[in-house]
Amino acid sequence: MWNLISHFLTFAGGIVSGVMLMCLMQTGKLADKEFETMKEE
């Protein structure tokens, strides 16, 4: 039983960190775009 729970927690943790990584990458891209816009002005 504990094996199943720990497996599920590892799986959920992987998804959460994956989503967080995606969000961080997205905000990074947005920051890059804003920086490019500021440079052009």
Automatic annotation (TrEMBL):
Pfam families linked to this entry: DUF3789 (PF12664)
| Membrane found in the keyword field | yes
Which keywords describe this protein according to UniProt? Membrane, Transmembrane, Transmembrane helix
Which regions span the lipid bilayer? Answer: 6-25
Q: List the InterPro entries.
A: DUF3789 (IPR024522)
The UniProt record lists the keyword Transmembrane: yes
Q: What protein name applies here?
A: DUF3789 domain-containing protein
The organism of origin for this protein: Blautia acetigignens
